[in-house]
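[audit] Reproducing an earlier prediction to check determinism. Same input, same settings, fresh worker. If the tokens differ from the archived copy the diff job will pick it up downstream; this log only records the rerun itself.
[audit] input (83 residues):
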Amino acid sequence: MAPGGRLPLAGPVGTGTHRRPTHAYSGHPVSYTLHRPPPGHLAALLREAGFTATAQLTQEPDAESTWRFANFLARKEGAGRPA
């Protein structure tokens, strides 16, 4: 990404937990691992990759969702402006 570029990042977060589903919503078999890192760990990874988090929103579980979600907006460090 060019310096000054913006990165939206969102996904499920947790306490470093993961899930390994065996079936998709439609009942088809699947095989993957979904990692749910803590939001602070994602923010640290962004910093290490040369980004500055300009916004962070964490959505707590509610009646419709049992997972926490985090949304970040980050800017790539360095001179320049996004195109």
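[audit] rerun output stored. Observation attached for the diff report: The longest strand covers residues 51-59.
[audit] end
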